[in-house]
Structures are given as C-alpha cells and as structure tokens.
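Narrative summary of target 7.
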Amino acid sequence: MSTKHTPRTSTTDPAATRKLEALGLLTPQETAPIPAPDATKEIIYLDPKNLSVHRSLDKLPALASDSPEFIAIVTSVQEIGIQEPLKIVLNSESEDTGIIIDGRHRWRAAKRLGLTAVPCIVIQYQDSKQVALASLTCRRHYTKAQLTYVCIDLMEDAFVEASERMFSGTGNPANSVRRVEKGLEMWADELGVSRRYLEQVRELRKLFEDKTKRDLRSDKDDESEVDTTFREFWEPRILRSENPLGIGGVLTAIKQVLSIEKKADAGIEHTGGAPQEHEAQLDLFTRSWEAVGKKFRYWSDWDPITRLTAIRQMTPVVAEMPDDLLEATAAEIKAEMKRRAAELK
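Modeled conformation, tokenized:
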C-alpha cells in the first residue's frame, strides 16, 4: 500500500526546461517534466520490492555492488535516508507498483539495507525518456565524452518520442528522422563534442551488443581478463574517473580483435604488429581533431582579419596531409557543404 505526502506548492526546474527547449525536446509552451531540486511535488512511499527499473535504462552502465561509489550511496542512505525522491511511472494495473526512471542506485541501496518504503515522485510515462536524459545530463562526475557515451541511446529514444508527438498526423516520418539527427547534432554541440565523436560512440555501442565471451587485453593499462564480453571489459575503463580510455582507442582495440578472428577463420596466421603503439597513436589523433572542433565556437566572435589569420594556419597542416587523408577530408567537407545547402532549401 502506498502512502502519500502532498505539499502546498510545486514547481519545475528552469535549467532543465531551458536545456530541453534548446535541444528541441520541449517547445517553449510546454512544461518541463523535471522537478526542481528544491521543489516539493507530491511524494508517495512505495516498497522497493514493488519497483523495477525502466527498460530504457538497461543499456546504461550501473555501479558495481562493491564499487566505492555505490558503497558511498549505501552509507549515505543508511545515515541520512534518501534525500532526493526516486522518479517513477506508476504501473497501470496497480498504484502500489512502479517503474523507476531515475534513482536506480538509491533503490538498490534501499534494497540492500532492507528498507520497506522509499520516497517517489510520479511522472507521466510519455515523458520518461526525457526525464531520465535530463537527470543524467545533470550528473557532475561524468566528463563530456563520458556523458555522450552514457546518454547516446537514451538521447535517440527521447528525440524519437518528441518527434513522434510533434509530427503525429503529418504522414511524413522523414520529418521525425531529420529532427532526430538534427537534435543529436545540437546536443553534441551543446556538450562540446564533435559529430565524428558522436558517430564513434554509436559504432562502439553497436559493437558492445556482441555477447561473445573472449579473452581480452588492454595494452594501455597492461591488464587482461578472460571469458568476458567487449562491453564488460571496456565500459568500466571508458567511464572510470581517473585516466579513462578514449572511444577511438577502444574502437581500434576491438577492431583489431575482430580482424584477428576473421583472419583466423580464413586460415590466415596473425603476424603480430604493434597494437599498443597504434592504439595510443589513434587515441592521440582523435583527441587532436576533437580539440580543433571545440575551438570553432570562437569563430563567430572573430573579426575578418583574425579569421584570415586562422585560415592561414591551416595551410602547412594541409600540406603535410597524406594523400588518402587529404582526399577523405575533402570528401567530408564536400558532403557537409551539401548537407548544409540542403537544410537551407
């Protein structure tokens, strides 16, 4: 049986509202579905045993039960209780059961401690992915790159939801697809990560769907594990707080493993090579491009002379490019110019 606490006032988080509006997930006329940190919306209390985690969060990394971060959450809940209510969607068949949208680690801590009731705020099901996304983007312990990795699947789902509502009845699904892609690009710009990085994260997420157990090694860490999946091995190293691995380097390592397996299946012997050196070099190369991409935000503030000076700095760099890299770069630039021209029509 749930219990309720009904305060006199409620409000919404203006920062969350602005972020969702900027990303196209809300129109200015809509109300953000995110409770403000100091707001007191209606709170109900449910037994943790009657709660489950929303399926959209399945792909998001979870803290290990023995990790210092999770132990700290358990200790906090034990000493001062759950200060921020869980955000849930009520089960349509019973008001005593719900699906967790935000707060799964607090929920796990409550279960470990044997609590019989946890505070919850009820949200609408159609806003669930947007709420989960906004909650994640407020996390301070992730870098921008890590946040992109964590949120990419949820971001795509949230834009699909918003687009389907906006274009419902138009009979033109292409509008939804274009809006999703444009929204993702806006979000990448908002976080200060390149669109290329966004593509790499999508590619890595796809590779992480492979459930094959392998013996894997990270040359950069000089660590190895047996009978593990790509995701189980690499994800903790991408998301760790100290010296996280770059997406580019992890992609390279996985592709090397797949290439070796493919050659083995074809009866071609692996001759070695220098995977550690290549992994480090590609990671550095990727980071350099990302650093350049982040500087483009200054361009609109520069006067013509400053812009011309910056353009001239590119000349010696372009002159040193290998032929195939130069051709690929030119093709990317041409494709981007064509895409932008199409948007203006």
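The radius of gyration is 24 Å.
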